[in-house]
Design brief:
244 residues, alpha+beta, 2,3-Dihydroxybiphenyl 1,2-Dioxygenase, domain 1, 2 domains, eight-stranded mixed sheet, 4 helices
Length: 244
Amino acid sequence: MTAFWDFPAETFETGVEFWVEATDADLSEPRGPGGEFATLIPTEGDACLRVQRVRSGKGGNHLDLHVDDVAAAAERATALGASVVAEEQGEVTVLSSPGGFPFCLVAHHGESRVPSPVEWPGGQRSIADQICIDIPWVGYERERDFWKAFTGRRGLPSRRPEFERLERPRGMPLEILLQRREEVGVGEPVTAHIDLACSDVEAETVRHNELGAVPVERFEHWQVMRDPAGLEYCITSRVPEPAA
């Protein structure tokens, strides 16, 4: 799995610079027809975080699923309710979930080494290792059932009724959290944001603030932030696990 930050052209450089610093990653050479893609390369393990410059819209986050057979996986996704948006020579198929969340199916090239958390000078450890899919309350059950069926991940109960976590198989770099959004209006599409697991939320919040992010709202177990490019994300008190 790969999580993407999708930045409009005017905020692309700012967003990329922030996340390279925030994750202690190296940035790959740009690729794509217009140099719109790049990979955040971790100190160890295989990359699972990438960035994209988008041509229109306000940006956001999307998910890539690495599969052995792109065409077969796309057929299964559409049978479960997804829609094909674009196809590219059998290597990439862009789809939309039943609730309108964009995701891609890409060819798997043997990625299997999970990155490790980074230990920062303040003593805290952190890692960006979760994508939270934000689902409007209208259509929540359909979207939830799609992701459970398509990924084959079992749903795990949460202490808060608006969340449901999908069990992460050993060796997978990213967790999937489903969030039911009661405040989102009818007709709004499903979106997503990135979460970090961190051993000290307060220390990590200060570090991100110094890098240019803005604290938005504090909850018991997480801090909502806005990066310098305007995308929201969360620093959570989930334990940053070492690489499996």
